[in-house]
Amino acid sequence: MNICRFRQISLAQQAPSPAMAAGNLPPAKYRRYMALQRNEDRLRMWEAHRLLIDTLDSQFTLNHALIQYVEQPGKKPYLPGQTGIRFNLAHSGTLAALALSESETGIDIEEIVAHDHLSQTARVFMSDTEWVTFNQLPENESLRFFYRIWTLKESLLKNMGTGILDNLRAYSFDLDGKSPLVRLNGKRLRGYHFFEIDINPAYAASVCSCSPDPLVMM
Predict the structure, then answer these.
(1) Is the Cβ–Cβ distance between 204 and 151 less than 8 Å?
(2) Other CB atoms within 10 Å distance of the CB of residue 200
(3) How far apart are CA 41 and CA 114, in angstroms?
(4) What's the total number of domains in the chain?
(5) What is the pLDDT of residue 82?
(6) Average pLDDT of the residues of the chain
(7) Helix, strand, or coil here: 90?
(8) Which of 90, 167, 197, 207 shows the smallest number of beta carbons within 10 Å?
(9) Shortest CA distance to 99 belongs to which of 164, 32, 6?
């Protein structure tokens, strides 16, 4: 089982009050919610959380009041007592994203935005092979390539639950096949299945699952 779902976020609305957030968010997420200063950042976190709750309620008939998730080291969330349900959340721009699976899973979504330090950032996380491809592409294609590689690596790290690593350049993606493949220090890294999602031309989104099942969009 590999399920993916997205939700549009209206950034014009007011984020929930601290009292409402405290009554709905898990403690660790509530602390991060309160640390956010901008209304739109709180809205993104809130809508991603609600996307999870609504999906668990509709697909697995889990009672809203009984859904509590906690975080492992590396901030990877999980549902205590629900060994057959793994999930991951992401948000960017005006979209929230959810990945659900029976196996470990990770998801990332990024709004495609050009910035002045694109090349410097790319050199930090791209492998030598990826870096060569990035520099050979026309400017409009290199921007999308940047975000494809970024979301693929981020989805892998979120699947693993490790957070950002110092050796991101050791992971190298091959995008020439039917689905992306990843190598670590030149050796094929098996057991991970990648899905790139064309949800919106202005975004890049990727899912990394330990399940080989096809990805189902909801």
Answers:
(1) yes
(2) 16
(3) 20
(4) 2
(5) 67
(6) 91
(7) strand
(8) 167
(9) 6
Q: How many helices (H) and strands (E) in the chain?
A: 6, 12
- pLDDT grade, residue 205 (50/70/90)? very high
Residue with tokens 């957030």: 21
Q: For residues 118 and 103, what is the distance between their CA atoms, to the nearest angstrom?
A: 34
Question: Domain span at residue 163?
Answer: 110-204
pLDDT of 183-194, one tens digit each? 999 999 999 999
Comparing 166 with 11, the larger pLDDT belongs to 11
- C-alpha 28/C-alpha 26 separation (Å) is 6
Q: Does any domain span residue 143?
A: yes
Is residue 211 included in any domain, yes or no?
Answer: no
- What is residue 63's predicted lDDT score, i.e. its pLDDT? 57
- Which of 178, 123, 179, 188 lies closest to 150 in space, CA to CA? 123
Instruction: Quote the CA–CA distance of 187 and 179 in Å, as a whole number.
Output: 17
What percent of the chain clears pLDDT 70, i.e. is strictly above it? 91
- 12 and 63, same domain (yes or no): yes
d(CA 209, CA 107): 9
